[in-house]
Amino acid sequence: METTESKPKLQDLTEIFQRCAERAPIYDKENRFFQEDFDELKEAGYLLMAVPEEFGGFGMNLAEVAQKTRELAYYAAPTALALNMHIYWTGLVADLWRQGDKSLEWLLEAAGKGAVFAAGHAESGNDHPSLYSTTKAEKVDGGYVFTGRKSFGSLTPVWTYLGLHGQDNSDPDNPKVVHAFMPRESENFEIKATWDNVLGMRATRSDDTILDGVFVPDKYIARVVPTGFAGIDGFVLGIFAWALVNFGNVYYGLAQRVFEIVTERLHKKKSIALNSPSMAHHPGIQHDISEMVLALESIGPHLDTVAREWSEGKDYGPAWGVKVVAAKCNAVEKSWGVVDKAMDISGGFGIFPASGLERLFRDARLGRFHPANGYLTREVLAKGMLGLDLDKRPS
């Protein structure tokens, strides 16, 4: 495993994280971007965590970044989630760079100088993000032209480059997925405001991006690979590893915060029907608390093991896909279970914004929408373990 003894240390960000926590309900209520959080964290170097020292960063690996992501998510999950959309690009490219692949060195140089990268993978009608695309990619002299619509652009107000993908179907027998980074100064794209008081994670301001024949030069074309699971190379696998492991940590950190809130309040919550000091003495409540503990105790070690083994370079081959999606799915589903039980325990007060739980409940629900969703996860796990063709879909 990489040693950290010679690495520059990211400063203690606890005070900044606490300010993020104070602003979180305001962002949610006003349905606005977490601009103050972004400015403070960028100034403090949070966005440089995974950038190698050679490019002005802290050189942190996935295991180290995951811990910091979890910590921020405990205070402000939407902020942690949105910033992960930048960090996972820098992290996966840093991994490739250390392995000798210098093809995307420009990205690390740009990130080290303050450029911000965002994710443009989500598309309506595509439940296999990154592996297929409803966006058209057309090869032209000097690059590709992209036409389509991207959803959930979490860093829309601040990104410098949008990491996106499209599908080149010019050869129907050999379709390709084209991964690219679109510079902000590109022409023929539009930001469409769609993030209007959505269920949760409002602070991410994840508006749509409409691509209407956007030209991206070859310099910013990261990969051209076959569609489907056959196209998973180190770059694409890195997207899944860095994005999904940290998605899991976002919702785990959120669930830890919810657990702390509800257990603290139990000692003050009373019932006229109970001859006891508080609801903490109720057998049913105690059972639910124990179930929450069992869930939380299983999430962290799972995420930590996957992140550590990835950082150590352990060779699981194609099985890495199974391990990554399983860790993310386990984390978000069990975290949701914790938050759901917490709402039961809280009683009617939990539905009011003053409780703090109402907002976190909504935020937690979005974890199961993030790729890979439960359907894709279970397809990957079952087919992978049965040795079936992952690209063969039901007719």
Give me the secondary-structure topology.
Elements: H1 14-30, H2 35-44, H3 62-98, H4 105-112, E1 117-120, E2 136-140, E3 143-153, E4 161-168, E5 176-183, E6 189-192, E7 207-217, E8 221-226, H5 234-266, H6 283-312, H7 319-346, H8 357-365, H9 374-386
Parallel strand pairs: 1-4
Antiparallel strand pairs: 2-3, 3-7, 4-5, 5-8, 6-7
How many DSSP helices? 9
Cα radius of gyration in angstroms: 21 Å
Q: Kindly state the number of beta strands.
A: 8
The biggest beta sheet reads: 4 strands, mixed
Order of helices and strands: HHHHEEEEEEEEHHHHH
Mean pLDDT across all amino acids: 94
In CATH's first tier, which class of the largest domain applies?
Mainly Alpha
Number of domains: 3
Strands ordered across the widest β-sheet: 1-4-5-8
What spatial form do the alpha-carbon principal axes imply? Answer: globular
Strand content: 5-15%
- End-to-end span in angstroms? 45 Å
Identify low-pLDDT runs: none
Give the helix/strand class. alpha+beta
CATH architectural label of the largest domain: Up-down Bundle
By CATH's scheme, which homologous superfamily of the largest domain applies?
Butyryl-CoA Dehydrogenase, subunit A, domain 3
CATH topology of the largest domain, which one? Answer: Butyryl-CoA Dehydrogenase, subunit A, domain 3
- Helicity level, as a percent range? 40-55%
